Amino acid sequence: MVKVYVNNNEVEVSQDALVIDAVEKAGYEVPTLCYLKGLFNEATCRICVVKVNGKVVPSCRFPVFEGARIIVDDSELRRLRRVNLELLLATHEIKCWSCVRKGMCELLSLSKRLGVEGIPVCSECPLRGRSCLVLKGFPCLGPLTVAGCDAECPRRGSPCIGCRGYIMSEDVWVRALEEFYKDNVSLNELKSLISFFWSYLPQNLYRLVREVSNVEY
Amino acid sequence: MSEALELGSGTRKISELIVRVPLASCTLAAGASKVLESIEKALGKLGLEARVKKTGCMGLCYLDPWIELESRGLPPTIYANVKPEQAEGIIRRYVEGDLSGALAVRSEASGFKGVPTLNSLPEWRLQVRYVSRNCGFIDPESIEDYLRTGGYSGLKKALKLGREEVIEIVRKSGLRGRGGAGFPTWYKWRVAYEQRSDVKYVICNGDEGDPGAFMNRLLAESDPHRVLEGLIIAGYAIGASRGYIFVRAEKPLMADRLEVAVRQARDYGFLGEKILGTDFSFDVEVYRSAGAFVCGEETALIAAIEGRSRPRQRPPYPATSGLWGKPTVINNVETLAHVATIFQTGLDEFTKYGTERSKGTKMFCVTGSVRKTGVYEVPIGTKIRTLVYELAGGPPDGRSVKAVQVGGPSGGCIPADLLDLELDYETLQSYGAIMGSGGLVVIDNTNCMVDVAKYFITFTLAESCGKCLPCRVGVKVLGDILEKVASGTATLEDLELLRELGESIMRSSLCALGGTAPNPVLSTLRYFKNEYEEHVVMRRCPAKVCSRLVTYEIDPARCRGCGQCAKNCPVSAISGQPGKAFKIDTSRCTKCGQCLIICPFGAVVKG
């Protein structure tokens, strides 16, 4: 057995334990993504980083040693986790409306937990057996509305009108607009749809909508 | 070094000649094989008996291909930049005692017939050829040559000592890893020595992949036995039974020469069962890597030998659990050559060079915008200015040094006003660069620092193995933002994002590749922030390199209307009538720069 200190709390764990085991034993929780206990600990996602004696290490892979001082959470660690999650989302197509997991996945729950923005409302609309309104052809604004309302409306069958405001990312808009035009939503229809924030759209998104609509109509 | 004088004890003819022709990858690329052919032809034509020795390279790349002639009564003389057709004339004149056209004579006495001595050249005088002492003198494919220069005497000395004593000598020498991080060599050995295991391994890391670094290749091609001797000593010290030399597949000659060296060492009993009558048995295999930059990282290197390809999280460190889970010591080519030389020459010869914390010498490759590109071995603690201006001759006329990129894609830029920094591990680290393997790329005022950062990020992006998230995606995002800066669409927040993201990647990456990848961006951002800001705010590239921010125009006062530009424009963006000034249609121009190269009157200007 070795003694380690998790956030200054003394814990005893076995010699071949990992840092994450010690942290869990001390009653704290580390967000993880790629770590599957006993199955996979290649430390690739770098979300579970903690500080051991001041050094940033992945807790799912790092072995404990006598007297290790582990810090589970501080401003730098929170920043590192957020940046890594944002990087993951930057290359991830957040098309929750056509994803088989229907917005109920580790990635999105983790982003919600860490407060990473740029996730559409449809990710939090677990459909409870009904199919997605966008896919049904309804002009639902879920894909380009900022998440955080737990999306009651689309679940009840009423298309989202975007009352939480729009997502700033251009990529998300491009993908969402493509999806709308595939379902033959006309420009006028779209304009009235996003009338909620049409006049407050920043230049780049405004231009984007014009450009996309001009090409199509 | 005057072999002719030693050998020629009156029984040989006065005219007996020794011709040394360097055959290494670099000189072969410069045409040494053709020079060799023409020398052999010329010798036949002149009826001279001569020994043609194929040596390694001296490291003075700007002289390639050079040859050295040696004969009784005449000093060994070096001729630089020899063309095949010149060979005959040079040899005829030399035999007649006429040294005109020679670069230098290799003798202690002052100039011979107006030809300077090699030691009077600054690029030679300021060097301390410690580990590279044999490079360019001996035949790398002959073990006898190496033995004649004291080769394997270090191994013999080491084998007479106990293992702990060997490690103690390396500890006293203060030798630190020459591959980049500067980790104390003895410490790795000590840890591996203390492990209880029936099988241990030593690996020589010859996977040198930095753009602008080739000292390991030069050393192993010109003096492979020195590397091998160091590896055997390391194997003895930790009690290993087997060694590997990991060589990039892109450096076939290096691998070939090392294989020849291993064969010869086996024949002479320096490898194999019961080496030199002791009970130490050791054998070495040359392993050709598939050639990925990340394989230079020690855990990735081990994985590559095992047949996989990616780095893994440390600990456990290789010294406790490395190749096939056994204790493994991994040392750089140059480190091992240093070990062999320390045991050959004794400690004092090594420790008299260097600084308090880092002893000895280090080979640096100086490339980029300098007159005398080459590999220079200098004591650690030499100023960057000495290396760039005195040894490498400074930038060509009309240009000035803007920055020096130290340590390749993992290193950082040191700006021109910090050139008086001393090259040692700690100093460089505190200024945002690393020693790395020792590549110095000199960047002059015609280069744009955003472009330089973009170049290195593109390199690491291509070489990232993609295992961990920060390196795989983060470096890509860094590249995207740099692209935005270079095309003038970035905002000032993007610069802040660059810095923050870079620091995050460095803190949370899995291996040293990701941990150092943002260095070029962060260091250029630190020292050349105004240049970045000029791209962002003024939408202008001060060095006129970033093509999206440059416009091409024709100066009507200078244009004679020859129409060459219009003829060669790939997108027909130039129009006009013969005899009158032409015009570039900026909306169609793709900024390829063809017109600038072609215009005979210098009328095309970048704006």
Structural account:
By secondary structure, chain A is α+β, with helices and mostly antiparallel strands. Chain A has two domains: 2-82, Ubiquitin-like (UB roll) (Roll), CATH 3.10.20; 93-216, no CATH class. Chain A has seven helices and five strands, in the order E-E-H-E-E-E-H-H-H-H-H-H. In chain A, strands 2-1-5-3-4 form a five-stranded mixed sheet, with helices on both faces. Chain A starts with a strand and ends with a helix. The model of chain A has no long low-confidence stretch (mean pLDDT 83). By secondary structure, chain B is α/β, with parallel strands linked by helices. Chain B folds into five domains: 3-118, Glutaredoxin (3-Layer(aba) Sandwich); 143-350, NADH-ubiquinone oxidoreductase 51kDa subunit (Rossmann fold, 3-Layer(aba) Sandwich), CATH 3.40.50.11540; 361-444, Ubiquitin-like (UB roll), CATH 3.10.20.600; 449-538, Up-down Bundle (de novo design (two linked rop proteins)), CATH 1.20.1440; 551-606, 2-Layer Sandwich (Alpha-Beta Plaits), CATH 3.30.70. A five-stranded mixed sheet of chain B has the order 2-1-3-4-5. A five-stranded mixed sheet of chain B has the order 11-10-14-12-13. Chain B has a four-stranded parallel sheet with strand order 8-7-6-9, with helices on both faces. The longest helix of chain B is centred in the C-terminal third of the chain and has 18 residues, at 469-486. Chain B is globular. Residues 1-14 of chain B have low confidence and may be disordered.
Reconstruct the topology from this structure:
The complex is a heterodimer of chains A (217) and B (607).
Chain A: E1 2-6, E2 9-13, H1 19-25, E3 49-52, E4 55-58, E5 69-71, H2 75-90, H3 106-114, H4 133-136, H5 170-182, H6 187-193, H7 203-216
Parallel strand pairs in A: 1-5
Antiparallel strand pairs in A: 1-2, 3-4, 3-5
Helix pairs in contact in A: 2-3, 5-7
Chain B: H1 3-7, E1 17-22, H2 25-29, H3 32-46, E2 50-55, E3 67-71, E4 74-79, H4 87-95, E5 104-105, H5 122-125, H6 143-148, H7 153-160, H8 163-173, H9 185-194, E6 201-206, H10 215-222, H11 224-238, E7 242-248, H12 252-267, E8 283-289, H13 298-306, E9 328-332, H14 333-345, H15 347-351, E10 361-368, E11 374-379, H16 384-391, E12 401-406, E13 412-415, H17 425-430, E14 439-444, H18 449-463, H19 469-486, H20 492-508, H21 512-516, H22 519-527, H23 529-538, E15 552-554, H24 564-568, E16 574-575, E17 583-584, H25 594-598, E18 604-606
Parallel strand pairs in B: 1-2, 6-7, 6-9, 7-8, 10-14
Antiparallel strand pairs in B: 1-3, 3-4, 4-5, 10-11, 12-13, 12-14, 15-18, 16-17
